Structures are given as structure tokens and as C-alpha cells.
């Protein structure tokens, strides 16, 4: 049976099973993740076909691995809740959990898929990952391309939601404060912002803006520029307390 169909069905089945008898907040989260999963599966192929040289270098089967990673990357998100509460990222690593589920499935137990999904939610790709280090030189190139495409597609789809649907990840008590010194230092030093440490609303918006610092492909960058994402995000931060100094800092270091 077609693996793209099976992957789509796996996501749909996970949603259907987990949505039963949940409260409204969890149901809304699961619906958001279902939409996001399919959005990323479209974005990842749009980016791939926009990068002609890379696209032409991959076989049909390798392109399928790219598409599968997009569909399945957030499988773990559907299990990121307990007793009616959405678990934080520090409590539950959804990338790791997806790999745990997929490596036991003969259709998706492919080290390239597992590597891309395990690394998609990390601050940076970890090339000491065993799924990567044990590959042949050729497959390492495919795995690297797949992981980078997935990270770009995930960010781009989230960016579009941030602009057009508000910021669904900011599910916490709203605060109105300038950017913290911790986040300012992160901005200056390559945007390595930890969601486990940032507290206020402006910091979290800056965390979303920082995604553009880790975009890999020109096709993705072009879309981010066309969406006017940076200015839209800065304007949003202003409404929650970002100062003129904060905005100047962001404009200086946010380059696409």
C-alpha cells in the first residue's frame, strides 16, 4: 500500500483516537496539530521543488522520504497531553516520541526519516545522532537535505499561522514587558533562545521571530520576505511592550 497514504492515515488515526473525551483546549490543540501536519507536508514539497538542483539530485524514493518526514514529523504532538493538560516541551519531547512510534513500524522505520524527525525540534541539527552517523556517505547527504527541508517547512508553516492566525504557541498568561536581558543577549549571539527560560510575551514573540535565523533554503527565505514576517512580528511585539531599542536590535540582527 502507498506509504504516503499510510502516513496520512496514521496522523488521522492518531488525531481521531486522542480527541475522544478531551476538553476543549486539548481538542483545539489536536485540531491545530492536524492542520499543521498537513500544512508542513505541502510546504516541504514546495520548498524541495523550488530548489531545482537539490530536487534533481534526489531519486523518486528519496523524495518520498522527504514527503513522509513532513507528514509524520509531529506525530508525537498528538500524545503530548495528560489528564486534560497539554504537556510543555520540557516535559515531553514530541520528536523523540514520534521516533519511538515510527521505529516500530516497518513502513517508516527508515533512518533518514527518523533522523529528520528527531532533529526537527532541536535548536540545531545534531550530526552525532546515531541514525545519521551509521548512514553511508550518500545517505548522509539525503538525510541532511531531508532534515533541513523539514526544519524549513515546519518553520514556514508556523510563520504563516503566526501572521494570519495569531500566535497559537503563546498559550500562557499574557504579560506586557520589554525584551529581557537574557533574550537580548541571545539575539546578539545567534538567537539560541531556550523556551524553557523565556518568560514574557515579547520574549516568546522574539523566539518565534528567531526561526528565520535558522532557515536553510533560498525558496524559504523568499517566502518569508514575501510574507513580511519580520516586520509583522516586530509590530506584534510592540503591542506587548517591546521598546524602540528592542525593535532596533531585532531589525539589526534579523536578516533573511
Alpha-beta content class? mainly alpha
Number of domains: 2
- Strand content of the residues, in percent? under 5%
Task: Name the helicity range.
Answer: 55-70%
Mean pLDDT: 93
* Highest CATH level, the class of the largest domain: Mainly Alpha
Q: Which value, in Å, is the CA radius of gyration?
A: 18 Å
> Can you count the beta strands?
2
**Uncertain spans:** none
Characterize the largest beta sheet: strand count, sense, and whether it forms a barrel. Answer: 2 strands, antiparallel
> How far apart are the termini?
41 Å
The CATH homologous superfamily of the largest domain: Hypothetical protein af1432
Order of helices and strands: HHHHEEHHHHHHHHH
Fill in the CATH topology of the largest domain.
Hypothetical protein af1432
Strand line-up in the sheet with most strands:
1-2
At CATH's second level, what is the architecture of the largest domain? Orthogonal Bundle
Shape: globular
Helical stretch tally = 13
Give structural notes.
With 256 residues, the chain is mainly alpha-helical. The chain has helices at residues 3-18, 24-50, 52-57, 60-72, 94-102, 111-119, 130-133, 137-164, 181-188, 201-209, 218-226, 229-239, 244-253; strands spanning 81-82, 85-86. The chain has two domains: 3-164, Hypothetical protein af1432; 181-253, no CATH class. The chain is built from 13 helices and two strands; from the N terminus they run H-H-H-H-E-E-H-H-H-H-H-H-H-H-H. Helix 1 packs parallel to helix 4 (60-72) and helix 2 packs antiparallel against helix 4 (60-72). It is globular, with a radius of gyration of 18 Å. It starts with a helix and ends with a helix.
Amino acid at each position: 500500500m502507498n506509504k504516503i497514504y499510510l502516513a496520512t492515515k496514521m496522523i488521522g488515526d492518531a488525531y481521531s483516537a486522542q480527541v475522544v473525551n478531551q476538553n476543549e483546549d486539548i481538542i483545539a490543540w489536536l485540531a491545530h496539530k492536524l492542520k499543521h501536519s498537513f500544512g508542513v507536508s505541502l510546504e516541504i514539497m514546495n520548498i524541495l521543488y523550488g530548489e531545482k538542483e537539490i530536487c534533481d539530485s534526489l531519486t523518486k524514493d528519496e523524495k518520498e522520504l522527504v514527503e513522509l518526514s513532513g507528514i509524520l514529523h509531529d506525530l508525537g504532538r498528538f500524545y503530548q497531553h495528560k489528564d486534560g493538560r497539554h504537556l510543555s516541551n520540557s516535559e515531553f519531547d514530541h520528536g523523540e516520541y514520534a521516533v519511538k512510534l515510527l521505529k516500530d513500524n516497518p513502513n517508516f522505520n527508515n533512518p533518514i526519516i527518523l533522523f529528520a524527525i528527531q532533529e526537527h525540534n532541536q535548536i540545531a541539527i545534531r550530526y552525532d545522532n546515531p541514525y545519521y552517523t551509521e548512514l553511508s556517505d550518500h545517505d548522509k547527504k539525503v538525510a541532511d537535505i531531508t532534515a533541513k527541508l523539514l526544519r524549513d517547512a515546519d518553520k514556514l508553516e508556523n510563520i504563516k499561522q503566526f501572521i494570519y492566525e495569531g500566535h497559537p504557541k503563546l498559550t500562557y498568561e499574557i504579560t506586557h514587558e520589554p525584551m529581557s536581558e537574557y533574550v537580548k543577549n541571545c539575539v546578539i549571539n545567534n538567537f539560541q533562545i531556550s523556551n524553557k527560560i523565556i518568560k514574557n510575551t515579547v520574549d516568546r514573540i522574539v523566539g518565534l521571530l528567531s526561526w528565520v535565523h535558522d532557515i536553510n533554503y533560498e525558496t524559504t527565505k523568499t517566502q518569508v520576505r514575501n510574507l513580511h514576517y519580520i516586520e509583522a512580528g516586530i509590530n506584534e511585539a510592540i503591542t506587548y511592550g517591546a521598546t524602540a531599542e528592542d525593535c532596533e536590535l531585532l531589525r539589526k540582527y534579523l536578516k533573511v
